[in-house]
Amino acid sequence: MKQDWAAVAATIEEHLARVGLDQRGLAERAGVALSIVRELRRNTVQRRRNVRTLEALSVALGLDSRHLSAVAAGHPPPTLDVLTAATAADIYRQLATISERLNELVLRMDVLDAKITTPSRPAGTPPNAL
After folding, report:
1. What burial class does residue 111 get, using C-beta atoms within 10 Å of its C-beta: 0-12 exposed, 13-18 middle, 19+ buried?
2. What is the pLDDT along the chain (130 residues), one digit of tens a residue?
3. CA–CA separation, 62 vs 85, rounded Å?
4. pTM for this one?
5. Contact present, 56 and 81 (Cβ < 8 Å)
6. Which CATH superfamily is domain 5-78 in?
7. Full 3-state SS string of 27-86
């Protein structure tokens, strides 16, 4: 069966802007190689793709997991209700915020750990006194 990769490219392009991602961000979020995203987005390599790749890209774009496979096959894509798609985008933003805060906390804990493992001594106390 012939696949409509031009439609897949158009769908990816349309939804990248909506979710606020670039190619690299999409590749990272979907867990696929950047080269695959480039090939699909630019429609440069037309070949059969693994269903899991298309599913991962669909989900990363906030779409139903079967969306890109349906588009490639020339079928109407399944739709998520608008609330679910908006919620998915919000969840990704919230996860990014949580990740940033977690990294900040890890850095703070590292500083505290360094202070605990390196005891300070009162001024005038000889180094051996502790």
Report:
1. exposed
2. 688 889 999 999 999 988 888 999 999 999 999 999 999 998 887 777 888 999 999 999 989 888 999 999 999 888 765 556 557 777 888 888 899 999 999 999 999 988 888 766 666 666 665 5
3. 5
4. 0.59
5. no
6. lambda repressor-like DNA-binding domains (1.10.260.40)
7. HHHHCCCHHHHHHHHHCCCCCCCCHHHHHHHHHHCCCCCCHHHHHHHCCCCCCCCHHHHH
Helix (H) / strand (E) containing 16: helix 5-19
Q: Name, in order, each residue with C-beta under 8 angstroms of 74's C-beta and a sequence gap of 6 or more.
A: 4, 7
Tokens read off for 84: 């679910």
Rounded to 10 deg, the angle between the 5-19 and 34-42 helix axes is 110
CA distances from 4 to 8, 47, 68, 76, 111 (A): 7, 10, 10, 12, 54
The one-letter amino acid code at 100 reads E
Indicate the domain borders of the chain.
5-78, 84-118
